[in-house]
Predict the structure.
Amino acid sequence: MKCSVIDGSHVLGKKWTVPIMQELFFKKKRGFNELSRSLKVSPKILSRRLNELESMGLLVKKQSAKESSYRLTRKGMEFQKIIDNMKEFHIKWAKTVDCKDTPCSECTFFNRS
């Protein structure tokens, strides 16, 4: 038998998962190049993470002549509730920035140099 909390933490704990999910939640549909630019992540890493999230059923990929675009599935939208709860917890208890309504790429903390 598997532990749902541990399995969920493996998904959330991977680098770039939350920023990618946030971008797709707030922007609804994004192209690969747009995601790479806004998140400042290498195409190789982004491609790997997007493939993992797609294989988990959290997002879908649509291929066009120009480029791939991605959007969250219903399952991915449900996953967003977990991210929102994490944000609320940290705002309340860790006194972090309030970014409930902001995708990671627009957050001043994420864009620090």
